[in-house]
Structures are given as structure tokens and as C-alpha cells.
Amino acid sequence: MNYRMIGFLIGRILLTEAALLALPTVTAILYGESPMPFLTTALALAAVGLLLGSRKPRQSAIYARDGFAVVALAWILMSAFGALPFVLSGDIPSYVDALFETVSGFTTTGATILPEVESLSRGILFWRSFTHWVGGMGVLVFVMAILPMSDGHGMHLMRAEVPGPSVGKLVSRMSDSAKILYGIYLVMTLLEIFLLLAGGMPLFDACIHSFGSAGTGGFSNRNLSVGAYGNAYYELVIGVFMLLFGINFNLYYFLMIRRFRDVFHSEELRAYLGIVAAAVLAIAVDVAHLYDSFAVSLRHAFFQVSSIITTTGFATVDFNTWPTFSKGILMVLMFVGACAGSTGGGIKVARMLILGKTALSDMRKMLHPTAVSAVRFEGKPLADQTVRSVHVFITVYLMVFTVSFLLLCLEGFDLITTFSALAACINNVGPGLEVVGPMGNFSGFSPWGKLLLSFNMLVGRLEIFPMLLLFAPSIWRRRLIRPVQNGI
């Protein structure tokens, strides 16, 4: 374990967070609010960051376990410091509540403890939603895009942070890959802001909802979320962009370099769009009797399916009032999630496809024991290690979910609220059902319950292993080990 290099990298990350606080500081000044909560936090971050990251150690090599430690510690510390503006401004006096809100922001979950948000200061509202944008593509991917970093460092950090069954380079250098990803991310965000402005949405609101769509987070500056506008154009723009941000960003790069065949032949993309289409149609038919026309039910179904499968969490209606079948579909979509390599959460469509293909292959072997049946994905045979990694991920995911669920049951809420609250947090969705539904919030949970759910949000966003490995004694030993491949 290279402690000095871990400290150096975390110091650079905290300095980056200090710089990011410039935007909400400017926002607060523009709206005549005190910038001190942001300036004070930025100074604290800068002091700690300079202490840790002022001098690069001579031994700069990092290994896989170092990468896991850096990613997990960086997300915890960024959330811990990021909660300070909420407390210092007085908008969220309780630090535990502020930490829950900040973790929810950075992990792009969108779960909130706030019963209403419109009374919050503009600077705080901006910071609250801007954490979605920063956390969406990945905090460390952002650092890699703006700071010089060797490929050896970048690969371990990117594998530990970027969601999906596998992580690779778009181009020869990992830092250049990070720049390409964030370039695409920025352009798409600006395009959504422009389209919302073209429809008449105020600039501040357009930025807030674009940050939430891009990071698939779901924080809004309206108590009724997107439904407060009652505008079909806004719903269409935000709904489409949520779906777009739920697609693997590698495919956008392939479009840029004219590799259209790779895009059109993507199994995960076809499955993702197919699931969305089937879910929208099924829900639209099921809720048609609740609305004036089938077109309206189709519009609401599309928006909610787009919001839930991408784990964004925006809402236009209270789907708590929908029939059980429709709520059941949305609950399933919480677990399915978006595509690997996107800003969305959940288990991911790619893993679902691999699990399904593996199950079919094993059943064929039961019928024909001597037959050779390779599992293929995206037109290529899958390595046994990749299949095993997916199985390990699902196994550990279920173990964490089960233990967390039993602990959360001690809170005393009804079964649906408890189950959906945990599902919404560990899958980074945001709203659940019943008490924590789209018109509810998480304020009723005790402080330890909020900390447990915050841990689950981090576990879900970092895809389990970086957070769990923090508790493994072997990760903190000084003896260096060979780099290992993280194919999960």
C-alpha cells in the first residue's frame, strides 16, 4: 500500500472540489446571498488538499488495491466536506441530514430528507444539483480529465469508479479517454440547457434540471419536481435526455468517429431501448383509465420509465397512486438500471444480459452435456473471468442488500417503504414507494438509518467493492502486490 501516493491523490481531489465550489459561490453572489458557506468550505478543502497533495512522492506507483482505497476515501471525504455548505448556511442544520443530502447528490441518487426545497437559497440549490453533474461521470474521471496523471494511475482509478462489467480505453491514453468522455458529457448538458431555454424555462431552472438529467440524479428546485411546470415540452426534452445519458458513452464516441456498425449492433443498447419501449406501453395501457386520453397516459408512462430505468428520479406525477402492476414494473426497473459506462445506476442492462445468456447456456448443457456452448455478448465470446465476475457482483450485491434490509427493518416502517427505500438508495434511483415515494422524503428515518442508507448509496454508485474493501485488513498492508484486473 503506497500511503503517500494515496494521500497525494486524495489531496488533489479535495483541491478540485474546492475549485468546483467557485460556481455556487458566484451563484450566491449573483442572487444577493452570502457566499461565506462556500468560501469557508473551499478554504477548509484547500488547506487539507495542500497538506496532502502539495508534493508528489518519489514512489508514485499505485496498484489495484490503492486504486480502490483512493476511490472509496475520495468519495467519502468529498461528501463529508460537501455537506458543510448546507450546515453553514443554516438550510440543513443537522450534519447527518446534510451528509445524506450530499451523498445523495454526488452518487446521483436524488433521495432527499427535505420536505420542501423552494425555500432553500439559490446558491445551495445550485450546489445541491451541481453535485449530480460532478458525480455523474465520476469524480476521479473528472480529475483525470483536468490534471496530468499517468496511465497506470488512471486505469486503476477508472476501473474502481466507472460503472459497468468492464472498463477500457477509448484511445491510447486513459487521461485522453477521460477528456473525451467529459467533453461529450459537457456538450450534451449544454444542449439540454439550450433546448429547455428555447422552451421558455428560466436559466437557473434549466441548469438545475440539466445537471439532474446529465448525472441521472433527480434533484429539482421545485417541490413537485418536473411536474410543477405542467409543460409537455419540458417533459419530452428531459425524458429524452435522461434516456440518452443512460446509454454507454463509448457509443457516442463511436458515432463521432463514424463507427456506426458498432453502435447499431450493440446488444446492450437494443435491450435497453426494448425494455423501455415494453415498459412504457405496458404502463400506459395500465394507467389509461386515470387520465383524459391515452396520449397523456403514454406521456406520463414514458417520463417515469425514463426516469426510473436511468435511476434519475425526476417525477411528473405521483406514481404511488398508480395500479400495483405499474408500480411493480417501476420497481423492477430500479434494479435493472441503465447501460454500463453511462451515468445511470442499478445493476446494469449488460449484467442482466450476461446472466440471462449464462443461464440459457447452462440449461442447454443440461440437455446436451457433450455440447460446447460459449456465452457470447456484443458479438464476442465472453471470457470465463468476466462471467464469474458478474456472478460474484450479483452474489455480493444480494448479500449487502439482505443485511441492509434487515437492519433497516429496525426503523419500524412498513415493508414496502423499507424495501423500496433501500432499493432506491443502493440502486441510486431516489424516490421509492409509500412514505419515500415521489411526493415523500427520507426525513422520517433516524440518524443511524440515514447513515446506513448513505453507505448504501456509496456502495451502489461505486459498485460495491471499493467501499467493502475498505474494511478488509489486507488492503492496508504495506507489502506491495501485483496489479490485478478488475473485470467486474
From TrEMBL:
Q: Tell me where it mainly resides.
A: membrane
Q: Which domain of life is it from?
A: Bacteria
Record key words, sorted: Cell inner membrane, Cell membrane, Ion transport, Membrane, Metal-binding, Potassium, Potassium transport, Transmembrane, Transmembrane helix, Transport
At which positions is K(+) bound?
T108, T109, G217, T311, T312, N428, V429
Which Pfam families does the UniProt entry name for this protein?
TrkH (PF02386)
Q: Kindly give the InterPro entries that the UniProt entry links to this protein.
A: Cat_transpt, TrkH
> Does the keyword Transport belong to this entry?
yes
According to the UniProt entry, its GO molecular function terms are: metal ion binding; potassium:chloride symporter activity
Record's GO cellular component terms: plasma membrane
- According to Swiss-Prot or TrEMBL, what is its membrane topology? Multi-pass membrane protein
Question: Which parts of the chain span the membrane according to its record?
Answer: 38-55, 67-88, 130-149, 180-204, 232-257, 269-291, 328-347, 390-413, 451-472
Location comes to: Cell inner membrane
Record has Cell inner membrane as a keyword: yes
Q: Which family does it belong to?
A: Belongs to the TrkH potassium transport family.
Protein known as: Potassium transporter KefA
Origin organism of this chain?
Pusillibacter faecalis
